[in-house]
Automatic annotation (TrEMBL), chain A:
One of its GO terms (cellular component) is RNA polymerase III complex. DNA-dependent RNA polymerase catalyzes the transcription of DNA into RNA using the four ribonucleoside triphosphates as substrates. Specific core component of RNA polymerase III which synthesizes small RNAs, such as 5S rRNA and tRNAs. DNA-dependent RNA polymerase catalyzes the transcription of DNA into RNA using the four ribonucleoside triphosphates as substrates. Specific peripheric component of RNA polymerase III (Pol III) which synthesizes small non-coding RNAs including 5S rRNA, snRNAs, tRNAs and miRNAs from at least 500 distinct genomic loci. Part of POLR3C/RPC3-POLR3F/RPC6-POLR3G/RPC7 heterotrimer, coordinates the dynamics of Pol III stalk and clamp modules during the transition from apo to elongation state. Pol III plays a key role in sensing and limiting infection by intracellular bacteria and DNA viruses. Residues 163-183, 197-230 are annotated as: Disordered. Belongs to the eukaryotic RPC3/POLR3C RNA polymerase subunit family. The gene is POLR3C. This is DNA-directed RNA polymerase III subunit RPC3. GO terms for molecular function: single-stranded DNA binding. It holds the Pfam family WHD_POLR3C. Component of the RNA polymerase III (Pol III) complex consisting of 17 subunits. The keyword Lipoprotein does not apply. Residues 146-328 form the RNA polymerase III Rpc82 C -terminal domain. Residues 346-422 form the DNA-directed RNA polymerase III subunit RPC3 winged-helix domain.
TrEMBL record, chain B:
Belongs to the eukaryotic RPC7 RNA polymerase subunit family. Residues 141-155, 164-173 have a biased composition (Basic and acidic residues). It comes from Camelus ferus (Wild bactrian camel). InterPro entries: RNA_pol_III_Rpc31. Residues 110-201 are annotated as: Disordered. This is DNA-directed RNA polymerase III subunit RPC7 isoform X3. One of its GO terms (cellular component) is RNA polymerase III complex. Pfam families: RNA_pol_3_Rpc31. Residues 113-126 have a biased composition (Basic residues). One of its GO terms (biological process) is transcription by RNA polymerase III. Keywords: DNA-directed RNA polymerase, Nucleus, Transcription. It is found in: Nucleus. Signal peptide: none annotated.
């Protein structure tokens, strides 16, 4: 794992789970698979805290355990999974667009808790939805269950591996750690539950956040003592399926930008038809005949068969080449599509960083694959001095690389061709590394800004709490005015600036994450191709 | 052999024109220090994307951050004991739900084994490990613990000494007694389990 990735993982873990979990997690990412006592010794934390941290990390699918020989249990962290935490809001928003509020809350609960049983998550979501509904109305469990079943059918949630049922005749002591297994066909099987009930509204007396200490800690409610029908069957969000969805979205919007709406609809139909049949890592979609495509087009599009054929030919002839074959049946070349999208990202980065003339040179070298210095100047129609300067700038930042072609076996420099070329996978990796670094910088800056103004933030929170409680008890306008004036005008300004900055930094993180997704998908598909 | 061994003017071994500049031309200065931490950019960055979707995702992100801090998975760093206990600290405690993981899915070594005044660690082990090894001690330990409770709290060292003695007497117990004790043991342990876990969180 590169230093940039480790730094980013450390920041994400710290924000979401606190310092102890962060320390353990980063140690595991750095050193690989380790047993419990070694972790405690190396990090200098107490055994209890290490145990708690590991429980949390395993619950959230960030660490897996494995039994090695001689009964030693080792723990291994999954760095790429930790980086996914940056993308959680995007997953939740996607669920909202596809399955509305119920789906959104289901996915949110699953992501926040790592893994849950179906009954538990349905109950929680029903309660949450009831809170937002009008007084007197309740959310039925059946509705939430239906949405959950739909999520499982479209593979957006999947079952976690289960503890294998041990037979009673198993001799000897039980293993120190269970080995969890799951079979392909069971992964999306929803257990037959009859969840009857309605969501409960939380009583207002339970919501005392600022106020008096509780007289006693509320014990577990009576519901927990009942036997849960689907005990042991846990569900988690299937991130690969979400990634497939994002990739399809990116391809469709790229086609819409390049051509028109209708062609993007055709591409969307093709991708949707092969959603569940192709695995998420396949380089090509299933071959589909144009008849099938014609039948599956959405109802609003009244285009005739010939027009469809024309569109398909157009898409196939496109230099971007997202469709591979010219004949029926046609399929999509997903690897090429991802390659195009990554190349577009690279081009736009060069343009924004170095200017439009550099971008022209970059696109030229991309198109012509290998070019000499002289040829670059001629084709780009840029004076020699400036062309040199730009090429060397891009070379130093590793967007462009040099390819040596020796004329003689002794590689003498005077008798060697030096050609400029763009090595796309290598440039994509370099850009990805920079993206990780940027996100880490953004998070650090945001934390710095918040820390600088901590006193002011706390003061404003206190004032808000006072105003809220006074309004609840029915205070006059004058009193509220007085309390509000506790925050002076310059302080208010400072708060506004802080809020604006934090929002901007957050939005930046989200957008850099989109680029990260694209580059990661491309690099993954190049690895799978080999 | 090569002709001039560097006598006279130095000659480059390659065609200098190919690299792009001629001899004697003024080249940029050699860089003697690392690049600046915040370099100047020539071009302004592209403005961020705005829209309903983006605003919603932003709000989601900020809410998620706040929610995560209140979940039981957020492990607080234990604060050092302050000399003067502040009155306000009692009232600013955020109440967090407990979370008990499904122990069937986790390695056994991760279960908390807290040394509690009311029970020794060996009685907890009896629930987790199999009956062969340590049940032989537990009947002994139980009796001793009851004695200790009558005597009063705080005599931990006595307890530990007695447990150590108990562990040496492995062969003393028979199987019949084990089963009865096991039944009692289970009930006793369940109560302890709950209490210890509420303390452990």
């Amino acid at each position: 794992m590169t230093q940039a990735e480790i730094k980013l993982c450390s920041l994400l873990l710290q924000e979401h789970f606190g310092e102890i979990v962060e320390k353990i997690g980063v140690h595991l990412i750095r050193t690989g698979s380790q047993p419990l006592r070694v972790i405690a010794h190396d990090t200098g934390t107490s055994l209890d805290q290490v145990k708690k941290a590991l429980c949390v990390l395993i619950q959230h699918n960030l660490v897996i355990h494995r039994v090695h020989k001689r009964g030693v249990v080792e723990y291994e962290a999954q760095c790429s999974r930790v980086l996914r935490m940056l993308r959680y809001p995007r997953y939740i928003y996607t669920a909202k667009t596809l399955y509305s509020d119920t789906g959104e809350l289901l996915v949110e609960e699953l992501l926040l808790n790592g893994k849950m049983t179906m009954s538990a998550v349905v109950k929680k979501v029903a309660d949450r939805l009831t809170e937002t509904m009008e007084d007197g109305k309740n959310m039925d469990y059946a509705e939430v269950s239906n949405t959950f079943v739909r999520l499982a059918d479209t593979h957006f949630v999947q079952r976690c591996p289960v503890v294998p049922a041990t037979e009673n005749s198993d001799p000897g002591p039980p293993p120190p750690a269970p080995t969890l297994v799951i079979s392909e066909k069971d992964m999306y099987l929803v257990p037959k539950l009859s969840l009857i009930g309605k969501g409960k509204r939380r009583r207002s007396s339970d919501e005392d956040a600022t106020g008096e200490p509780k007289a006693k800690r509320p014990k577990h409610t009576s519901d927990n003592k009942e036997p849960i029908p689907d005990d042991g069957i846990y569900w988690q969000a299937n991130l690969d399926r979400f990634h497939q969805h994002f990739r399809d979205q990116a391809i469709v919007s790229a086609v819409a930008n390049r051509m028109d709406q209708t062609s993007s609809e055709i591409v969307r139909t093709m991708l949707r038809m092969s959603e569940i049949t192709t695995s998420s890592s396949a380089p090509f979609t299933q071959p589909l005949s144009s008849n099938e495509i014609f039948r599956s087009l959405p109802v609003g599009y009244n285009i005739s068969k010939q027009v469809l054929d024309q569109y398909l030919t157009l898409l196939a002839d496109d230099p971007a080449k997202t469709l591979l074959s010219d004949l029926d049946p046609r399929h999509e070349d997903l690897h090429k599509a991802l390659g195009c999208l990554s190349t577009a990202s690279l081009e736009s980065v060069v343009q924004e960083r170095f200017g439009s003339r550099c971008a022209r040179i970059f696109r030229l070298v991309l198109q012509k694959k290998h070019l000499e210095q002289k040829q670059v100047e001629d084709f780009a129609m840029i004076p020699a001095k400036e062309a040199k300067d730009m090429l060397y700038k891009m070379l130093s930042e590793n967007f462009i690389s040099l390819q040596e072609i020796p004329k003689t076996p002794d590689h003498a420099p005077s008798r060697t061709f030096y050609l400029y070329t763009v090595n796309i996978p290598s440039a994509a990796r370099m850009l990805l590394h920079r993206c990780y670094k940027s996100v880490a910088n953004l998070i650090e800056r945001r934390q710095f800004e918040t820390k600088e103004n901590k006193r002011l933030l706390e003061k404003s929170q206190r004032v808000e709490a006072i105003i809220a409680s006074m309004q609840a008890t029915g205070a006059e306008e004058a009193q509220l005015q007085e309390i509000e004036e506790m925050i002076t005008a310059p302080e208010r300004q400072q708060l506004e600036t802080l809020k604006r900055n934090v929002n901007k930094l957050d939005a930046c993180e989200i957008q850099v994450d989109e680029t990260i997704f694209l580059l990661e998908s491309y690099i993954e598909s190049t690895l799978k191709r080999q | 052999m090569a002709g001039n061994k560097g006598r006279g003017r130095a000659a480059y071994t390659f065609n200098i024109e190919a690299v792009g500049f001629s001899r004697g031309e003024k080249l940029p200065d050699v860089v003697l220090k690392p690049p600046p931490l915040f370099p100047d950019t020539d071009y302004k960055p592209v403005p961020l994307k705005t829209g309903e979707g983006e605003d919603y995702v932003l709000a989601l992100k900020q809410e998620l951050r706040e929610t995560m801090k209140r979940m039981p998975y957020f492990v607080e760093t234990p604060e050092e004991k302050q000399d003067i206990e502040r009155y306000s600290k009692r009232y600013m405690k955020v109440y967090k739900e407990e979370w008990i993981p499904d122990w069937r899915r986790l390695p056994r070594e991760l279960m908390p084994r807290k040394k509690c005044k009311k029970a020794g660690p060996k009685s907890k082990k009896a629930k987790n490990t199999d009956k062969d090894t340590s049940l032989t001690n537990t009947a002994d330990v139980l009796k001793k613990i009851e004695e200790l409770e009558k005597r009063g709290d705080g005599e931990k060292s006595d307890e530990e000494n007695e447990e150590k003695e108990g562990s040496k007497e492995k062969s003393k117990e028979g199987d019949d007694e084990d089963e009865d004790d096991a039944a009692d043991q289970e009930e006793y342990d369940e109560e302890e389990q709950e209490e210890v876990e509420t303390e452990a969180v």
